[in-house]
Protein backbone atom coordinates (compact mmCIF):
# COMPACT_ATOMS: atom_id res chain seq x y z
CA UNK A 1 0.00 0.00 0.00
CA UNK A 2 1.53 3.29 -1.01
CA UNK A 3 1.32 6.04 1.60
CA UNK A 4 2.24 9.65 1.03
CA UNK A 5 5.32 10.98 2.81
CA UNK A 6 3.31 13.37 4.99
CA UNK A 7 1.07 10.50 6.18
CA UNK A 8 4.13 8.41 6.99
CA UNK A 9 5.49 11.24 9.18
CA UNK A 10 2.12 11.67 10.94
CA UNK A 11 1.88 7.91 11.57
CA UNK A 12 5.42 7.82 12.98
CA UNK A 13 4.67 10.73 15.35
CA UNK A 14 1.42 9.06 16.45
CA UNK A 15 3.10 5.74 17.20
CA UNK A 16 5.95 7.50 19.02
CA UNK A 17 3.41 9.47 21.06
CA UNK A 18 1.47 6.29 21.94
CA UNK A 19 4.69 4.50 22.98
CA UNK A 20 5.74 7.47 25.07
CA UNK A 21 2.28 7.66 26.69
CA UNK A 22 2.21 3.92 27.48
CA UNK A 23 5.70 4.10 28.90
CA UNK A 24 5.18 7.16 31.11
CA UNK A 25 1.53 7.41 32.18
CA UNK A 26 -0.70 4.75 33.80
CA UNK A 27 -3.75 6.97 33.00
CA UNK A 28 -2.90 6.82 29.31
CA UNK A 29 -2.68 3.01 29.47
CA UNK A 30 -6.00 2.81 31.28
CA UNK A 31 -7.72 5.17 28.86
CA UNK A 32 -6.44 3.39 25.79
CA UNK A 33 -7.51 0.00 27.20
CA UNK A 34 -10.99 1.32 28.00
CA UNK A 35 -11.37 2.60 24.43
CA UNK A 36 -11.56 -0.96 23.08
CA UNK A 37 -14.90 -1.83 24.79
CA UNK A 38 -16.20 1.64 23.93
CA UNK A 39 -15.54 0.99 20.22
CA UNK A 40 -17.38 -2.31 20.52
CA UNK A 41 -20.49 -0.54 21.91
CA UNK A 42 -23.20 1.35 20.03
CA UNK A 43 -21.34 4.67 19.84
CA UNK A 44 -18.10 2.95 18.91
CA UNK A 45 -19.67 1.06 16.08
CA UNK A 46 -21.19 4.30 14.79
CA UNK A 47 -17.79 6.00 14.98
CA UNK A 48 -16.07 3.10 13.19
CA UNK A 49 -18.84 3.01 10.56
CA UNK A 50 -18.45 6.74 9.97
CA UNK A 51 -14.70 6.33 9.64
CA UNK A 52 -15.12 3.41 7.20
CA UNK A 53 -17.71 5.28 5.09
CA UNK A 54 -15.45 8.32 4.93
CA UNK A 55 -12.54 6.11 3.82
CA UNK A 56 -14.73 4.38 1.20
CA UNK A 57 -16.08 7.68 -0.08
CA UNK A 58 -12.59 9.14 -0.25
CA UNK A 59 -11.20 6.09 -2.11
CA UNK A 60 -13.33 3.94 -4.41
CA UNK A 61 -16.32 6.25 -4.74
CA UNK A 62 -14.13 9.24 -5.60
CA UNK A 63 -12.34 7.02 -8.11
CA UNK A 64 -15.67 5.92 -9.63
CA UNK A 65 -16.79 9.55 -9.90
CA UNK A 66 -13.52 10.50 -11.59
CA UNK A 67 -13.87 7.56 -13.99
CA UNK A 68 -17.45 8.56 -14.79
CA UNK A 69 -16.32 12.10 -15.65
CA UNK A 70 -13.63 10.63 -17.93
CA UNK A 71 -16.19 8.39 -19.64
CA UNK A 72 -18.45 11.38 -20.32
CA UNK A 73 -15.52 13.40 -21.67
CA UNK A 74 -14.37 10.49 -23.80
CA UNK A 75 -17.87 9.92 -25.24
CA UNK A 76 -18.19 13.62 -26.10
CA UNK A 77 -14.82 13.55 -27.82
CA UNK A 78 -15.73 10.39 -29.74
CA UNK A 79 -19.03 11.84 -30.94
CA UNK A 80 -17.32 15.05 -32.04
CA UNK A 81 -14.69 13.05 -33.94
CA UNK A 82 -17.40 10.96 -35.63
CA UNK A 83 -19.25 14.10 -36.71
CA UNK A 84 -16.07 15.64 -38.12
CA UNK A 85 -15.14 12.35 -39.81
CA UNK A 86 -18.62 12.00 -41.36
CA UNK A 87 -18.48 15.59 -42.61
CA UNK A 88 -15.04 15.02 -44.19
CA UNK A 89 -16.12 11.67 -45.65
CA UNK A 90 -19.22 13.24 -47.22
CA UNK A 91 -17.13 16.09 -48.61
CA UNK A 92 -14.55 13.70 -50.11
CA UNK A 93 -17.13 11.27 -51.49
CA UNK A 94 -19.20 13.99 -53.20
CA UNK A 95 -16.23 15.97 -54.56
CA UNK A 96 -16.09 14.07 -57.90
CA UNK A 97 -19.82 14.52 -58.38
CA UNK A 98 -19.54 18.25 -57.71
CA UNK A 99 -16.71 18.51 -60.25
CA UNK A 100 -18.79 16.64 -62.85
CA UNK A 101 -21.82 18.84 -62.24
CA UNK A 102 -19.69 22.00 -62.40
CA UNK A 103 -18.19 20.82 -65.71
CA UNK A 104 -21.66 20.01 -67.04
CA UNK A 105 -22.85 23.53 -66.22
CA UNK A 106 -19.80 25.02 -67.96
CA UNK A 107 -20.26 22.70 -70.94
CA UNK A 108 -23.93 23.65 -71.11
CA UNK A 109 -23.02 27.34 -71.25
CA UNK A 110 -20.39 26.65 -73.92
CA UNK A 111 -22.87 24.55 -75.92
CA UNK A 112 -25.45 27.34 -75.71
CA UNK A 113 -22.87 29.88 -76.92
CA UNK A 114 -21.83 27.55 -79.79
CA UNK A 115 -25.47 27.07 -80.79
CA UNK A 116 -25.98 30.82 -80.83
CA UNK A 117 -22.84 31.21 -82.97
CA UNK A 118 -24.11 28.53 -85.37
CA UNK A 119 -27.53 30.21 -85.50
CA UNK A 120 -25.89 33.57 -86.27
CA UNK A 121 -23.68 31.97 -88.91
CA UNK A 122 -26.58 30.30 -90.67
CA UNK A 123 -28.93 33.28 -90.32
CA UNK A 124 -28.04 34.46 -93.82
CA UNK A 125 -28.55 31.00 -95.26
CA UNK A 126 -31.90 30.69 -93.49
CA UNK A 127 -32.97 34.02 -94.97
CA UNK A 128 -32.00 32.78 -98.43
CA UNK A 129 -33.95 29.55 -97.96
CA UNK A 130 -37.00 31.41 -96.71
CA UNK A 131 -36.76 34.18 -99.26
CA UNK A 132 -39.05 34.20 -102.29
CA UNK A 133 -36.86 36.52 -104.27
CA UNK A 134 -36.08 35.44 -107.83
CA UNK A 135 -39.01 33.19 -108.66
CA UNK A 136 -42.72 33.48 -109.05
CA UNK A 137 -45.07 31.60 -106.75
CA UNK A 138 -47.75 31.63 -109.46
CA UNK A 139 -46.13 28.89 -111.52
CA UNK A 140 -48.03 26.57 -113.74
CA UNK A 141 -49.17 23.48 -111.94
CA UNK A 142 -47.70 21.15 -114.43
CA UNK A 143 -44.13 21.92 -113.48
CA UNK A 144 -44.40 21.04 -109.75
CA UNK A 145 -45.31 17.54 -108.62
CA UNK A 146 -48.50 17.19 -106.60
CA UNK A 147 -46.90 15.51 -103.54
CA UNK A 148 -45.16 17.58 -100.84
CA UNK A 149 -41.53 18.35 -101.55
CA UNK A 150 -38.71 18.19 -99.03
CA UNK A 151 -36.98 21.36 -97.90
CA UNK A 152 -33.83 20.29 -99.75
CA UNK A 153 -35.73 19.90 -103.01
CA UNK A 154 -37.47 23.27 -102.58
CA UNK A 155 -34.10 24.96 -101.88
CA UNK A 156 -32.58 23.40 -105.02
CA UNK A 157 -35.55 24.54 -107.08
CA UNK A 158 -35.38 28.09 -105.71
CA UNK A 159 -31.66 28.23 -106.45
CA UNK A 160 -32.17 27.01 -110.06
CA UNK A 161 -34.98 29.51 -110.59
CA UNK A 162 -32.79 32.32 -109.38
CA UNK A 163 -30.01 31.30 -111.69
CA UNK A 164 -32.27 31.23 -114.79
CA UNK A 165 -33.25 34.84 -114.45
Automatic annotation (TrEMBL):
Name of the protein in its database record: Uncharacterized protein
Lineage: Eukaryota, Metazoa, Chordata, Craniata, Vertebrata
Highest rank taxon of the organism: Eukaryota
Amino acid sequence: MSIEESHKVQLTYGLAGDALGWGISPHFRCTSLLLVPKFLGKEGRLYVLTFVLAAVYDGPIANLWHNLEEVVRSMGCTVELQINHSRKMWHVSTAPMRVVLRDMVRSGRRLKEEMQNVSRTFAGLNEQVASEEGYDLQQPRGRLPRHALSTQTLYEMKTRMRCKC
